[in-house]
Automatic annotation (TrEMBL):
One of its GO terms (biological process) is protein K48-linked deubiquitination. This is Ubiquitin carboxyl-terminal hydrolase MINDY. It comes from the Eukaryota. It is an enzyme of class 3 (hydrolase). Its EC number is 3.4.19.12. The keyword Hydrolase applies. The gene is Mindy4b_0.
Length: 108
């Protein structure tokens, strides 16, 4: 039997498979699980365990940003700028959200 803590986590945690790599996206604010008002601007942390990632990436998510404030992401097949897979995964829950990497280079 699965213990209660594993069925209902105290902090938001998402296990992801992005581009064939397993990673974890998590938050440290438990209110994100129960209070929709905390989903305006919040912080998540991303770790993929790969050698190229020296430390956990601190992401700031803004779900009420304006489209003109965000840098455009081109089609992943185009030779220009692409959206990191973790940003696309975040937008499956918070459509239109902007993601700030806070000085860390995005992971592709």
């Amino acid at each position: 039997q699965v213990c209660h803590g594993l069925r209902t986590p105290q902090l938001p945690v998402w296990l992801c498979s992005l581009s064939g790599r397993h990673s974890v996206l998590f938050g440290t604010d438990s209110r994100l699980l129960s209070d929709w008002k905390t989903e305006r601007v919040f912080h998540l942390y991303f770790y993929n365990g790969q050698r190229e990632q020296a430390k956990t990436a601190h992401l700031t998510i803004d779900t009420h940003s304006h489209p003109w404030e965000e840098e455009p992401c081109e089609d992943p097949s185009s030779p220009g700028k692409r959206c990191p897979p973790v940003e696309m995964a975040i937008r499956t829950k918070w459509a239109g959200a902007t993601v700030s990497w806070n000085g860390t280079d995005p992971f592709f």
